[in-house]
Amino acid sequence: MAASCDFDVLVVGSGASGLAAAVSALAAGARVAVATKGSLQANNSSKAQGGIQAAFGPDDSPERHAEDVWRSSHETADRQLVEVLTSEAPSAIHWLEELGVEFARDGDRYRLARCGGASAARLLQVGDRTGLAITRALRQVFEAGPGTAFENAPLHSLEPLENGWRARCGEHEISAATVVLAAGGRCYAEARERGELSTNHPNATGEVTALAVELGAQSRDLDALQYHPNGGAWPSGMQGYSIPETTRSYGAVLLNIDREEFTDSLGPRDVVAQAIVDEVANGKGVETPDGRPAVYLDTTRIPTADAERSLPYMLRRYRQAGIDPLTEALLTYPVLHYQNGGLVIDPDAQTSIEGLFACGEIAGGTHGRNRMMGNSLLECVVYGRRAGRAAAVGARG
CA-to-CA distance for 240 and 265, rounded, in angstroms? Predict the structure, then answer.
């Protein structure tokens, strides 16, 4: 066991929410440590492609954004958390820009796309690697500051003390006044147990959620796991790849074996995913060469200019696999993607346990039982910032 280390704030996890929390806690003057299961770069946030939502359009508003979240959640989200999320979305975007993230623009306006479940175009993008751009910028800011990183240091135990916490992370024993849990969800482990495909990083196995619940933290909707409607089904090297939902924002549609549209391709995620499953169950699906179920995603309808600007990574991946999405429809089927539920938090991201905070996928309530695309990265930034600030204040108090 390495020597004990003392900090004001310990952040567990190095995805967008953990890094946002760490950067914000450092800005508030706290002594901060980030402990992560692998390297700082190994996280789900870096794999997020679609974009991040914020109400910047002339016909849009944070209130309209909030109503879309509420409706897409089937009225199961926490309204207070949703209103914080959408009202702080524009400032979160400007903060990311200050850190070096460059969102696509058309002239002096953001290039906005309409995503599934949205009533207006409000999705900002950095090509189709938005999560990578955000996590890279946050990581660079953190690494340039006085924070301490413990890599290859998964959280094994967390013990409340009279004035804080003692954590065992890998071979390190870390004492901290407050703790921010930002360790993501469990969909990789869940998919492996079910024998299904997942979009998730192999580190998404859920132990930290279980540990917090054992400590007495309240949770909600942990059974509400989300399937990404458009997982890659073929070629084999693309199985489990999350085809960006922005393909549908730019004109792609879902077709059955008869090349007929069978659902609103811009509907909420759970509705679209269920429609695909039902279409296959009704004998209207397509079978991949290795026998997996699928339907067509007709990406040939996407204008070439839009695809080359907003979907370059997807084009490159499929072309390397021998398929050009602009001339050939893709085979797709839902894959396990996101843990909608998680630890109950208040607007400052504090769990039901004092001094223990949670942000990002490990937290529940903001999305209810069904999440809109583009709101996961937003949640990471908005509640990561709030968690970091509140944890820093709590450490002083």
Answer: 20
- Enumerate the β-bridge partners of residue 150: 35
Which residue's structure tokens are 């839902």? 334
Cβ–Cβ < 8 Å for 4, 176: no
* N residues, the chain: 397
43: left (phi over 0), alpha (psi -120 to 50) or beta: beta
Active site residues: 269
**3-state SS assignment for residue 26:** helix
329/288 Cα distance (integer angstroms): 13
**In this predicted structure, what is the pLDDT of residue 397?**
78
In the block, which residue shows the tokens 């999305």?
367
Q: Is the pLDDT of residue 1 over 60?
A: no
Can you read off the two tokens belonging to residue 298? Answer: 């007709």
Neighbours of 310 (CB within 10 A): 26
Q: Is the pLDDT of residue 2 over 70?
A: no
Q: Which domains can be identified in the chain, with CATH numbers?
A: 5-186+340-396 (3.50.50.60), 227-336 (3.90.700.10)
On whether the CB atoms of residues 345 and 383 are closer than 8 A, the answer is yes
Based on the number of CB atoms within 10 Å of its own CB, is 191 exposed (0-12), middle (13-18) or buried (19 or more)? buried
Q: Mean pLDDT throughout 31-57?
A: 95
pTM: 0.96
Query: Two tokens at 206?
Result: 């859920």
Kindly report each contact of residues 277-281 with a partner whose C-beta sits within 8 Å and lies 24 or more positions away, as own/partner.
277/334, 280/333
- Reported as a single tens digit per residue, the pLDDT across 6-18 is 999 999 999 999 9
Burial of 367 (0-12, 13-18, 19+ CB in 10 A): buried
Distance CA 79, CA 70 (A): 7
Distance CA 17, CA 264 (A): 32
Structure-derived torsion over alpha carbons of residues 324, 328, 329, 330, reported in degrees to the nearest 10 = -40
Which of 106, 114, 122, 126 shows the shortest CA–CA distance to 312?
Answer: 126
CB count within 10 Å of CB 154 equals: 18
Burial of 94 from C-beta contacts in 10 A (0-12 / 13-18 / 19+): exposed
- For the chain, list the strands marked E by DSSP: 5-12, 32-35, 52-53, 105-106, 109-110, 123-124, 148-150, 155-161, 164-169, 172-181, 219-220, 225-234, 253-255, 286-287, 293-298, 330-339, 342-344, 356-358, 363-364
